[in-house]
Specification:
Layout: H1 2-51, H2 54-74, H3 80-102, H4 112-128
Helix pairs in contact: 1-2, 1-4, 2-3, 2-4, 3-4
């Protein structure tokens, strides 16, 4: 009887532990998916800046912000790489907010500086999240 109880407790603990591992892996997969798409948007944002397409810069900058915010919500608070990535994600959001505040009817070169800074922050965040910069499907 005692052995059965211990085995039952062990089985329950294993199921709970496996569920935690699976949840962590699912969260990591989702973080990496967001990071890959965010990196692609950051590259496209600067590319369109070089072509003078202000509307496209704003679109990609808003997408970078959306993905960065989603990653921030998914990052485990105790993970040191997550903490380091969070600093860079917040910087990317801050720079994209600068671009967004400029609006559409401006000189196309004006948002290029903050867009480039946002891209650099995204690249650094991606490095901490172990995602190759510029990867991902759009």
């Amino acid at each position: 009887m005692l052995i059965t109880v211990r085995l039952t407790i062990l089985a329950v603990m294993c199921v709970i532990g496996c569920a935690d591992v699976m949840a962590a892996e699912g969260g990591l997969k989702e973080i990496r998916e967001h990071a890959g798409v965010m990196a692609k948007d950051a590259e496209d944002m600067v590319m369109h800046g070089g072509m003078g397409d202000t509307k496209a810069i704003l679109h990609h900058c808003r997408e970078v912000t959306r993905h960065a915010q989603a990653i921030l919500k998914l990052l485990p608070p105790a993970d040191p790489h997550g903490k380091e990535a969070a600093v860079h994600l917040q910087e990317a959001i801050r720079q994209c907010q600068r671009v967004d505040s400029m609006g559409v009817n401006i000189d196309p070169g004006a948002p290029l500086n903050p867009a480039t800074k946002a891209r650099a922050a995204v690249r650094e965040a991606a490095r901490h999240l172990s995602v190759p910069s510029g990867s991902g499907k759009h």
